[in-house]
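S1.2 Input.
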Amino acid sequence: MGAPIVTPQGLTHQQEHFAQLVASGLNQSDAYRQAYNVSPDTLPETTHQAASILASHSNVAPRIQQLRATIEAATVAKIAWDNAKLTKEADRHRELA
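S1.3 Output.
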């Protein structure tokens, strides 16, 4: 079997998937279960420990922060856009009144 395929950030696809899940709001253990297809027989403590170690990995932790920052910036932009749209709509209604 060959080496794992690595993303431009130096992560395996499973690590990238884990980072995306954590950044989107899933807790580390649930993200680990999904990204690594953990067996239902696996003890919760084992999953928690593995997830914690992975989240602090030297390539994974900065990727989670990068993804969170991207999500935050998109959210702020959406809120600003929505606010501008609502303000414009309110101004239009005031003019009609």
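S1.4 Remarks. Residues 91 and 97 are 10 Å apart (CA to CA).
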